[in-house]
Amino acid sequence: MTHAVNSSDLVFYYSFDELNGNIIPDLSGNGLNGDINGKIKLVDGGKFGKAAEFQSGDYIDVHGPDVPANLIPREQITLCAWINLKNDGQDHAIFNARASDQTWLIHPESKTSGDFRWLLRSDGAATIFDLRGGAIDYGKWQHYAGTYDGKKGTLYINGEVVAEGNGNAKIAKDWGLGARVGKNIDDARPFAGLMDDINLWKVALTKDEIKTVMEKSAGVFLKPESVSPDGNMTSTWGKLKSH
Prior knowledge:
Elements: E1 10-14, E2 23-24, E3 34-37, E4 41-43, E5 51-54, E6 59-61, E7 77-85, E8 92-93, E9 95-98, E10 104-110, E11 116-121, E12 127-133, E13 142-148, E14 152-157, E15 160-166, E16 178-181, E17 193-201, H1 207-216, E18 225-227, E19 233-236
Antiparallel strand pairs: 1-17, 2-3, 3-6, 4-5, 5-17, 6-16, 7-13, 7-17, 8-10, 9-10, 9-16, 10-11, 11-12, 13-14, 14-15, 18-19
């Protein structure tokens, strides 16, 4: 599959370079700013500028019930993030969303078994695929990316394919019971460690595009200016991360 990446395909993008009070700005232009729950702080030493430091139990509320239907990925999806995990004996959720029918629809996470997971479900809790692969290297930066093009799911670690699986269903249609970065909706699988440059798309990025995001940040695909729906400037090209 080949296509020209369009910034309009972004759902949200958190660079973790700045805070607005207790809010993580969404640089996609969609206004999906995240509310900090806990004591997340920005620290130096990220892959691109600063990173978010999560203590176990901290999370970012993306306000799933308020996300417009046109921004919910259904036919295709990509989730990317740089992560540097603490070995605290728990699974670590990178992002989690739950549909109104109680379907747990997305699980990009690390597992205590030492590998990573990429799972998607359709309406009615039907599993599209459940992939496991790669190896966790605690205390070091690793790039996680999961994609689904409507026919195949792929899990990438550090830009390389570690697991693939077929699928032929649409992803569950809403985030009605919530969406979070860093913790499941039922408060399980808290993320502990550092996170940087998390970005969610409505398209399946190619391997080359994932490597570009990994090496240069998702900011390279943004328009020179991203403006939120209320007209406020959320980012300018000069403030975007650079490699």
